[in-house]
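Figure S7 source data.
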Amino acid sequence: LLEAALETIYTEKHKLRDAKTELFGGELVAPHERPSRAEYILGRVQSEKLGAVSAPQDFGFDPIHANHNNDFVSFLQTAYRDWKAEGFKGEAIPTALPARRMAQKCPTFIEGKLGYYANAIETSISDGTWEAAYASAQVALTGAKRIQDGANSVFSLCRPPGHHATYDMFGGFCFLNNAAIAAQSFLDNGAKRVAIVDVDFHHGNGTQDIFYDRDDVLFVSLHGDPMDTFPYFLGHADETGKGAGAGLNINYPMPPKTPFSTWRDALTEGLNKVRDFKPDALVISLGVDTFENDPISFFKLKSKDFIAYGADIAQLGLPTQFVMEGGYDVEEIGVNTVNVLQGFEGA
Ligand code: OKP
Ligand code: ZN
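Tokens for the predicted OKP complex:
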């Protein structure tokens, strides 16, 4: 038997997400989540001859609405246009959010809507953001379809990322939750159970929120302790799921300077939980911002460590979809991302 290469799903439409601003350290800076990220990753996929690179199919809005509120999706589509129509000069950024003891009622004015639908305010909505977010979700759905059609593994090179997007909130550079949309698509096409393992440096607060009370999705996340880093308000170890989902949400928060040995022990434990869950498919929220030189993160993984943990994931022997999330040291994210995929393939 010839070993099948790992296919990458990619579209240039990600370039439509090219915001000029991110609120960072009290300044509006050039976004860390920028188009060159995907180009570095694609370049490495090609130079390493990982496998075919294919365009996504269009599965329309139904699988997006399966995980996201209709009014939220409509808001995303027109937010930038509505903002500009008010004569605002910059990109669309929320200011006021419905915090403790405030009314959870969507305002009519666009600035208020932005706050209502945001869980963080660093992320500007710019011209083309919706089109790129929609395409990114289709990249995720196309990868899921490949696995449903019998592939053992696939890489959805999603951009913008998705794991901070909830049912009805954007933030943390995310608009639609690509991994959640893919997981739901498995369930809607015959899978009984799906596991999501989120190895991005940041807690996958959106994914956790979407599946928190569900018994058909196991969510495991390894991340910087939210006491020390974004997203700050979710990701603690005592968040274990509720109702039918009790015990099916597993968080591994870790402190600054966590080395690979500690991180890998948590991964091993998380993968054992996945094995016990007996899922029909595995979705990996693949962020490589755990890298020692990542500019906005604090773990200490080295490039070779990404190969090692890719092999660990392969030991489960499950149909596996990799969905791209974060990773910001742009020169190295191509190497580290493809190292995970090659580690997985080589095992
Ligand atoms: C998105 B993904 C750092 C602020 C961080 C947002 C980070 C979003 C990360 N001082 N702001 O999970 O990689
Ligand atoms: Zn991240």
